[in-house]
């Protein structure tokens, strides 16, 4: 760990201002990912801006009937929130499928959005990694890549986004609220918040330097059956090999009235293909939906299994939703 | 005492309510849960330590061209940057303890290339990141599979690498039913909770240099002797202290590089130096369990009687190292069969140093062999337990001596009854909702060694007893069972026994490893107590015949004296020693057991989850039913890990382990270990040692994973021969099954 300056601003404006003034500054909230990365010198911030005392820890109803989740709301609290459990159960389920009790007590909503990949090679500073050191190459390609992406990957990077929460936020059409150092606010749809690696895998989100997440907003609940199916290598405390977040409402016969599907473990961002949802609604066939989801899917060797696994998991999830 | 004959009646016999065996709580439990049991890194006896951090080689094969330490030396707080150019002179390697920083050659990824010492841990770590190494790197040879054909016959360790009896090839060719299968097991990491850690203090004095190490070590006397050679000190001038150890699992059987480096830095700086490996460093700097390739050939007649048994194993270790995984050793003894061979081959590769881990040999050997037996049973269409019973030997088939005790059949039958083995359905037929369900079993066997060990006991004037020996407690319960043995022998409650272990200042002891700890150290203590009893009776002029020690008193004839009065004003001391003797050769000594597992395999995703598990074991006299059961369950949990998830993946392009942290190197978590139980059948082994106990520490892992793998086969009809059994292999198997079904239609 490199020496760093530490600031603990009291207001959102001060936090954003500090982030703009200080070079190589990083916000820290729960620190459940950032501190590990700092110990390995994968993250080397010159200044840590501790945002834990900012007034961003509330969950409030929105005028539109939705929910506004403060950036600092802890994962454990969010999963236990009555409205989340009642109206956005997929989010509660995804949160509880992630990490461990101790980590969920500490990890925050905004921090989870910014959780970095678990790519083994990203964590090994003796290996080339375009995400860690742009231009150095990608050791995961041609290596052991069991946990890597099968969709949306590039020649530069095949890493995945490891978050469970993000998959649920994506299927819920959440919006990320931010404030920048000038005080300007903006709303970023989840669809646009995370980026594909392209040739700049070090840039993972749409956030600008110094821009601070203040909240995540959920639209009015849509009803339906909420499921989060996480497939993993041990029963708890493991990242998803593949996960499916589904909100499905039963229609007439075998076809759902509506369906929303998002996938984790497949790509650099939560994966959602609206054509797949349409196909499912029109045909009632999970395989037809899987065909759309997996369009362009490409295995890297040790992760080839994710392609059939995604299909099987989607099939099972749709069947479960329609049975419910 | 040399264990040359069966022990006969002892004071531990015939006490139905005795202290030995009782499931008492750990005597050190309160200290541990209140944080008052200091581990090596936490001890404060050595004042004002500096902090070390290891710089690892970033390549697996080649040479350091240049090592730039300038920035590191100038970094805040830095006291020393030790490299191959500045390291003090060292002696020869002993066993697997290597002199450190011996030159620019790189033999494996993670090999220490520099040691940075600073005033604080954070300063040392930050400065270590500033050391710049330039390499002439070469492509490493890091694949066991690629080296399999050229692997060599290793030097005999405790046992010869090969064995042969009768004519295997002929019998195999003639057998009406045969099996020829290959199993693989991956690299595994010990993943003990407490990392390797040492505080070293090198003191120069008029009568030579002395070294004190507070270190996490399982076998202190062995460590003392190897470090003395490497550091060119007299063994008696090296003191190792290891009062509490947070798990070892074999990785602390000998000092690891951090201990040597801390000692050398302390010598240079004339100040205590402390260092702990990071979790990531544990994977490369410390030892691991090698991957193995195992070929098993079995020939049987139609009734399942084995006529030919061959078990061959290939393993790998670092260049210049001789350790090989003795996977096939247990096969020499486990089942009858007239024609047999075992063979071990070793490849020296650009991989870190392989060493003993959690039942070296048996653990991975039985992962393969006990599945092969299941395959043979399936081929013969007979029950797997029946197959094993059919091949129950009269005596040890290769050593050709009787077993001291062997209750494998009783363990299997008792387990079958308790577990509901008769409810096992045909392979691939049982369902519970989305889960395919299967039952599997496996035999368990683990060598029962006895090691030389010494102990001293001192009866104090207040009637309390102090036990001393250089034994260790690696979390297994040694403090507790030693207190129980001494208490039973002397008629004292455990509250009046003070067990002082973990220091080479005390009598030499076996240490903890190889399942020999409790038997060896406990037997030395037994002998010491027996000698103390005789000394006390003698000093009081009491008749030793029929003397009894009970409730703090010695009773003989019509005399009854308190121990406090017998101790006198000075107290009285006795010592004891145990050595293995003729019993080791005259009898084949193993602990036995049987594992039963029920697994569910998710029919959609191929995820495998254990549903319940039972182990039935015999280990001679059980010294503490609670700690024994905990040990057994811990071993079984290792088996769950080995079967389902544990694998350090080697990237052969780099010669390094890819998933080098506990986020991605998976060991079982609580949710992976549901209803699990271990029971012990009554047994006394009077050939093993004076306690009539046998080793239990590693028995629980032996065969455990095979029971799960066999259950997976029962659930799915799939036979996965490459451990661990992960969902991708299940999906691959199903895809093949479906492909075959389609081709048929």
TrEMBL record, chain A:
Q: Where in the numbering of this chain does the FAD-binding PCMH-type domain appear?
A: 1-223
In terms of InterPro entries, this protein maps to: CO_DH_flav_C, CO_DH_flav_C_dom_sf, Diverse_Substr_Oxidored, FAD-bd_PCMH, FAD-bd_PCMH-like_sf, FAD-bd_PCMH_sub1, FAD-bd_PCMH_sub2, Mopterin_DH_FAD-bd
Q: Where do the TM regions start and end?
A: none
Q: Does the keyword Zinc apply?
A: no
Keywords for this protein: FAD, Flavoprotein
One Pfam family, short name: FAD_binding_5
Recorded GO molecular functions are: FAD binding; oxidoreductase activity
| PROSITE patterns documented for this protein | FAD_PCMH (PS51387)
Task: Identify the PANTHER family for this entry.
Answer: ALDEHYDE OXIDOREDUCTASE FAD-BINDING SUBUNIT PAOB (PTHR42659:SF5), XANTHINE DEHYDROGENASE SUBUNIT C-RELATED (PTHR42659)
Q: What is this protein called?
A: Xanthine dehydrogenase family protein subunit M
What organism is recorded for this protein? Methylorubrum populi
Starting at the broadest rank, the lineage of the source organism is: Bacteria, Pseudomonadati, Pseudomonadota, Alphaproteobacteria, Hyphomicrobiales
Automatic annotation (TrEMBL), chain B:
**Which positions are tagged coiled coil?**
none
Read off the SUPFAM superfamilies from this record: CO dehydrogenase molybdoprotein N-domain-like, Molybdenum cofactor-binding domain
Please identify the protein, giving its name as recorded.
Xanthine dehydrogenase family protein molybdopterin-binding subunit
| Family annotation (InterPro entries) | Ald_Oxase/Xan_DH_a/b, Ald_Oxase/Xan_DH_a/b_sf, Ald_Oxase/xanthine_DH-like, AldOxase/xan_DH_MoCoBD1, AldOxase/xan_DH_MoCoBD2, AldOxase/xan_DH_Mopterin-bd_sf
GO terms for MF: iron ion binding; oxidoreductase activity
Pfam families for this protein: Ald_Xan_dh_C, MoCoBD_1, MoCoBD_2
Domain named Aldehyde oxidase/xanthine dehydrogenase a/b hammerhead: which ranges? 34-139
Top-level lineage group: Bacteria
Where are the stretches annotated Disordered?
A: 142-164
């Amino acid at each position: 760990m490199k020496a760093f300056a530490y600031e603990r601003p009291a207001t959102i404006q001060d936090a954003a201002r500090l982030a703009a003034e200080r070079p190589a500054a990083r916000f820290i909230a729960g620190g459940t990912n950032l501190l590990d990365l700092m110990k390995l010198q994968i993250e080397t911030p010159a200044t840590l801006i501790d945002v834990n005392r900012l007034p961003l820890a509330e969950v409030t109803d929105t005028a539109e009937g939705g929910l506004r989740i403060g950036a600092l709301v802890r994962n454990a609290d969010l999963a236990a929130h009555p409205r989340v459990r009642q109206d956005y159960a997929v989010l509660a389920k995804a949160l509880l499928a992630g990490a461990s009790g101790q980590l969920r007590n500490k990890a925050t909503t905004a921090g989870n959005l910014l959780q970095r990949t678990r790519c083994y090679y990203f964590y090994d500073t003796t290996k080339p990694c375009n995400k860690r050191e742009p231009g150095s190459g990608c050791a995961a390609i041609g290596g052991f890549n069991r946990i890597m992406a099968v969709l949306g990957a590039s020649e530069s990077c095949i890493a995945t986004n490891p978050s469970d929460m993000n998959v649920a936020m994506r299927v819920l059409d959440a919006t990320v609220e931010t404030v920048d150092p000038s005080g300007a606010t903006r709303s970023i749809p989840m669809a646009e918040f995370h980026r594909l690696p392209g040739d700049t895998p070090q840039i993972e989100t749409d956030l600008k330097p110094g821009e601070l997440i203040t909240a995540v907003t959920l639209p009015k609940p849509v009803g339906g059956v909420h499921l989060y199916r996480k497939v993993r290598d041990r029963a708890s405390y493991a990242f998803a090999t593949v996960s499916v977040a589904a909100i499905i409402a039963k229609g007439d016969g075998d076809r759902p009235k509506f369906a929303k599907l998002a996938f984790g473990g497949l790509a650099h961002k939560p994966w959602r293909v609206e054509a797949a949802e349409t196909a499912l609604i029109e045909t009632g066939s999970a395989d037809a939906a899987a065909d759309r989801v997996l369009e362009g899917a490409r295995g890297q060797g040790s992760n080839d299994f994710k392609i059939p696994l995604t299909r099987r998991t989607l099939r099972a999830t749709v069947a479960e939703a329609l049975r419910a | 005492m040399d264990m040359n004959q069966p022990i006969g009646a002892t004071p531990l016999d015939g006490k139905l309510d005795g202290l030995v065996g009782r499931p008492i709580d750990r005597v050190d439990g309160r200290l541990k849960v209140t944080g008052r049991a200091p581990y090596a890194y936490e001890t404060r006896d050595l004042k004002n330590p500096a902090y070390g951090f290891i710089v690892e080689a970033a390549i697996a094969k080649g040479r350091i061209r240049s090592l730039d330490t300038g920035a590191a030396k100038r970094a805040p707080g830095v006291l020393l940057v030790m490299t191959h150019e500045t390291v003090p002179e060292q002696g020869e390697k002993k066993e697997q303890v290597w002199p450190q920083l011996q030159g620019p050659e790189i033999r494996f990824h993670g090999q220490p290339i520099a040691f940075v010492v600073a005033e604080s841990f954070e300063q040392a770590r930050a400065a270590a990141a500033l050391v710049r190494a330039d390499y002439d790197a070469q492509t490493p040879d890091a694949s066991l599979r690629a080296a399999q054909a050229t692997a060599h016959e290793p030097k005999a360790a405790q046992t010869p690498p090969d064995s042969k009896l009768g004519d295997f090839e002929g019998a195999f060719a003639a057998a009406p039913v045969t099996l020829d299968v290959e199993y693989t097991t991956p690299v595994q990491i010990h993943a003990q909770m407490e990392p390797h850690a040492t505080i070293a203090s090198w003191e120069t004095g008029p009568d030579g240099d002395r070294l004190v190490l507070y270190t996490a070590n399982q076998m202190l006397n062995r460590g003392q002797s190897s470090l003395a050679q490497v550091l060119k000190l007299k063994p008696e001038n090296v003191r190792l202290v290891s009062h509490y150890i947070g798990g070892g699992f074999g990785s602390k059987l000998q000092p690891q590089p951090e201990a040597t480096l801390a000692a050398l830095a302390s010598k240079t700086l004339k100040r205590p130096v402390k260092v702990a490996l990071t979790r990531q460093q544990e994977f490369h700097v410390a030892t691991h369990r090698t991957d193995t390739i195992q070929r098993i050939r079995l020939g049987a007649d139609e009734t399942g009687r084995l006529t030919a048994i061959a078990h061959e194993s290939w393993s790998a270790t670092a260049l210049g190292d001789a350790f090989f995984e003795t996977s096939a050793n247990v096969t020499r003894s486990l089942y009858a069969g007239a024609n047999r061979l075992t063979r071990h081959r070793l490849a020296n590769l650009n991989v870190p140093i392989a060493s003993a881990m959690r039942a070296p040999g048996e653990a991975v050997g039985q992962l393969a062999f006990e599945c092969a037996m299941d395959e043979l049973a399936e081929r013969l269409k007979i029950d797997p337990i029946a197959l094993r019973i059919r091949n129950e030997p009269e005596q040890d088939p290769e050593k050709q001596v009787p077993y001291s005790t062997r209750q494998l059949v009783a363990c299997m039958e008792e387990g079958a009854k308790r577990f509901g083995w008769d409810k096992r359905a045909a392979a691939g037929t049982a369902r519970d909702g989305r889960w395919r369900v299967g039952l599997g079993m496996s035999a368990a066997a683990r060598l029962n060694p006895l090691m030389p060990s010494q102990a001293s006991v001192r009866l104090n004037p207040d009637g309390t007893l102090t036990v001393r020996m250089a034994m260790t407690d690696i979390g297994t319960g040694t403090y507790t069972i030693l207190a129980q043995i001494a208490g039973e022998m002397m008629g004292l409650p455990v509250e009046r026994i003070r067990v002082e272990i973990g220091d080479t200042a005390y009598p030499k002891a076996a240490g903890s490893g190889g399942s020999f700890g409790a038997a060896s150290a406990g037997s030395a203590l037994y002998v010491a107590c027996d000698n103390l009893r005789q000394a006390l009776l003698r000093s009081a002029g009491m008749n030793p015949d029929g003397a009894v020690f009970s409730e703090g008193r010695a009773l003989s004839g019509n005399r009854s004296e308190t121990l406090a009065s017998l101790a006198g004003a000075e107290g009285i001391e006795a010592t004891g020693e145990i050595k293995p003797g003729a019993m080791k050769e005259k009898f084949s000594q193993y602990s036995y057991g049987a594992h039963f597992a029920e697994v569910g395999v998710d029919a959609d995703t191929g995820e495998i989850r254990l549903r319940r598990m039972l182990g039935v074991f015999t280990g001679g006299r059980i010294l503490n039913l609670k700690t024994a059961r905990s040990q057994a369950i811990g071993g079984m949990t290792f088996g769950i890990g080995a079967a389902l998830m544990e694998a350090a993946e080697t990237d052969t392009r780099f010669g390094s382990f890819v998933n080098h942290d506990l986020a991605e190197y998976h060991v079982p978590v609580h949710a992976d270990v549901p209803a699990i139980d271990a029971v012990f059948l009554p047994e006394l082994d009077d050939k093993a040692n004076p306690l009539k106990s046998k080793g239990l520490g590693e028995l629980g892992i032996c065969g455990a994973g095979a029971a799960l793998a066999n259950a997976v086969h029962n659930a799915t009809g799939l036979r996965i021969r490459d451990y661990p059994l992960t969902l991708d292999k299940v999906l691959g198997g199903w895809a093949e099954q479906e492909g075959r079904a389609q081709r048929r239609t």
